[in-house]
Write a structure and sequence with these properties.
alpha+beta, four-stranded antiparallel sheet, globular
């Protein structure tokens, strides 16, 4: 197991995305419509524990405002083993 989590945005030509949570702000590079994070990356915890929601922004597109549901942490913990 590679213990990695991919953030996938289909049909995007963006070369980077920005993720905003209540405790973190980070830009990630995109290749082939995805950005891959190590399961231990603290950004995943910031997304899962964000106050209510987090945002994914990319140039030329409306921001994605997503709920910080418990599933994010479940997937992260399952991947961590």
């Amino acid at each position: 197991a590679t213990r990695r989590i991919a953030i996938v945005i289909p049909a995007t030509s963006a070369t980077s995305i920005t993720i905003r949570t209540s405790t973190a702000l980070r830009s990630l590079s995109m290749q082939g419509g995805q950005s891959v994070l190590a399961a231990t990356d603290p950004l995943l915890d910031a997304m899962g524990f964000s106050r209510g929601r987090f945002v994914i922004e990319q140039a030329g597109a409306a921001p994605l405002v997503l709920p910080a549901w418990a599933e994010i942490e479940r997937v992260t913990e399952d991947c961590r083993g």
